[in-house]
Write a structure and sequence with these properties.
With 552 residues, the chain is mainly beta. It folds into three domains: 271 residues, no CATH class; 164 residues; 68 residues, no CATH class. It is built from three helices and 39 strands. The chain has an eight-stranded antiparallel β-sheet with strand order 4-3-2-1-10-9-8-5, with helices on one face. It has an eight-stranded antiparallel β-barrel with strand order 11-12-13-14-15-16-17-18.
């Protein structure tokens, strides 16, 4: 992977001005997942080289960590615009930047070492061709663990709830479901499928079906068969009989397929995200325990509760909450080091209860290097609104150089610990823990870090272009035209505008009818990367589909 620079950020932002930001590129049917990627043939359980990939819209950013021919650790960077599922871009090497504990200093870009070509088959697999090497397969690095945890579907502790959309063969939303994973006492994974709306991250509503799940190929893939039971019904809710599920949990995302039975059997594909994982043991006022692992807004999912709460029915109980906040994976930067010149960069990858961090920086002599480590990630304490990890960082040497023979690297030096922390703001203020945190690097004071936003629309209307699903009414909107300060469907009959007085956070969508408007609902504008309960993005403004695509 390669260091992030503020110069890169400027290049990326300019690209959306100098290049057309309408859907002129070939659209993808998936979005590559941001995080750590590896060369498939080089995965042997030993240290080696890898890639930190970040795709937002059509903007591609990749940091490559590898080794010089003399064995020294180094990094390169590539960025540009994807043409469909492929990009060819120069690999750039940098020198002269800041080392751990040093004073601030700018780096300089050297000449490109050659072009790299990256192609994606889906959101988890692809190929890469480095200069002087043949094309080889790459894949998203996903943690494979048999440890009992809140986020391991085969060693489930408590409950794990995901929101998934079932898509028909034409790409339309057929069903909106919640999938809640648990584990029976005999160790068998169980899935409960229910209508997603209304829902929270912690409750599954009727009607529902139960499934027994078994592992296929890897620990994150499950084959689930329906348990013969009567499907519960609610008035005015049509519930399909689902015979089988195939689920694949990839970091925070879920994909797979379902076989819907009944009079008109059909196969549907699944796409979605994990919303939360939790367990608690209710006790008297003397000894409560509990834990939450949140992958959505803390305030929306738990109504801002951060202190112990009491619920009185027949008797009083008290529950203590342990929360784990899940920020965006991908490219981050030290806010104070955004100077318009090359500098250091961070690649963050949090999967469940593990945090992986790569730091792309420089040695004291100005030569590029990288430091990497992983550690447990979780709550800062009972009823805390913060989560953290203390990660030992190591420098490596001796691994595969570009065009050189395959060989494992060795630990060269222990650099010390990095501490990352994310904290949700009180309910009365705007929360931003998903793209705003703190880091303390070895020999340095804590500093603020920000998630890099590479695809930044210039206006509200441009931001809302694309295809959206509105769960409250089960409607899909294709917003393809900008009309003043509004964005509309192709025929202009349905339109969305900013809600007055909302400070840019809310919108109204509706349809004119005579001299009045028939509003679908008042909606919350999703954050830059995530969806909101009221709007789920199906395709971005370039026509690229959300989700990871078809499971292989």
């Amino acid at each position: 992977m390669a260091a992030l620079t503020s110069t890169l950020r400027s290049i990326v932002l300019v690209s959306c001005v100098a290049l057309p930001c309408a859907p002129t590129w070939a659209a993808r049917n998936f979005t590559p997942q941001s995080g750590t990627w590896v060369v498939s043939s080089e995965v042997d359980g030993k240290p080696g080289r890898g890639l930190a990939i970040d795709v937002q819209g059509n903007t591609f950013f990749m940091q490559v960590f590898g080794y010089e021919k003399n064995g020294d650790a180094t990094f390169h960077m590539a960025t540009g615009q994807l043409d469909g599922d492929t990009i060819t871009a120069p690999l750039i090497r940098y020198t002269g930047g800041r080392s751990f504990g040093s004073s601030a200093r700018d780096a300089a870009a050297e000449q490109s070492v050659g072009d790299v070509t990256v192609s994606f088959r889906n959101g988890l697999k692809g190929t890469v061709q480095f200069p002087g090497e043949p094309a080889v397969a790459i894949e998203r690095f996903l943690i494979d663990s048999n440890e009992v945890s809140l986020v391991n579907p085969l060693a489930q502790l408590g409950y794990r709830t995901s929101r998934v959309l079932a898509m028909d063969e034409g790409g339309a939303v057929a069903y909106d479901w919640a999938v809640t994973m648990t584990r029976r006492e005999d160790g068998v994974a169980m899935a409960r499928l229910s209508q997603a709306y209304p829902m929270t991250s912690y409750l599954s509503y009727k009607p529902f079906q139960d499934f027994e799940c078994h592992r296929i190929r890897s620990s994150a893939q499950l084959d689930c068969k329906a348990i013969p039971t009567k499907v519960d019904e609610w008035p005015d809710v049509k519930t399909p009989q689902v015979d089988a599920l195939r689920l694949w949990f990839a970091a925070e995302e879920v994909l797979g397929s379902a076989r819907v039975g009944g009079d008109q059997p059909a196969n549907v594909s699944l796409m979605g995200r994990t919303r939360g994982a939790y367990y608690w043991v209710s006790a008297g006022l003397g000894g409560p325990t509990g834990r939450l692992s949140l992958r959505d807004s803390f305030e929306q999912s738990f109504q801002g509760a951060s202190a112990p709460f009491e619920a009185c029915m027949i008797s009083c109980q008290k529950t203590t909450v342990y929360s784990t906040l899940m920020p965006y994976n991908g490219t981050w930067m030290v806010e104070d080091e955004i100077t318009g010149k090359p500098g250091r960069g961070l690649a963050l990858d949090i999967q469940g209860e593990t945090a992986i961090l790569q730091v792309f920086n420089y040695r004291a002599d100005g030569q590029p290097t990288f430091h990497m480590g992983s550690a447990a990630y979780g709550t800062k304490g009972a009823d805390s609104r913060a989560s953290l990890a203390v990660i030992p960082l190591r420098e490596y040497a001796g691994g595969k150089s570009m065009g050189g023979p395959t060989q494992p690297a060795q630990v060269k030096a222990e650099a010390g610990d990095a501490q990352i922390e994310f904290s949700a703001a009180p309910p009365a203020t705007e929360t931003s823990w998903w793209d705003d945190g703190k880091i303390k690097l070895p020999g340095e004071a804590p500093v603020r870090i920000r998630r890099l936003q590479m695809d930044t629309p210039a206006s509200f209307a441009e931001r809302m272009l694309g295809e959206w699903y509105l769960p409250f009414i089960g409607k899909t909107l294709k917003l393809v035209r900008v009309d003043g300060d509004a964005v509309t469907t192709a025929n202009g009959k349905e339109r969305c505008t900013l809600r007055q007085g909302s400070q840019g956070t809310d919108l109204n969508c509706g349809q004119p009818q005579g001299n009045a408007w028939v509003w679908f609902q008042r909606l919350k504008i999703p954050t830059s990367f995530r969806d909101d309960d009221s709007m789920i993005r199906l395709r971005d403004r370039f026509g690229n589909a959300a989700g990871l695509g078809k499971m292989e």
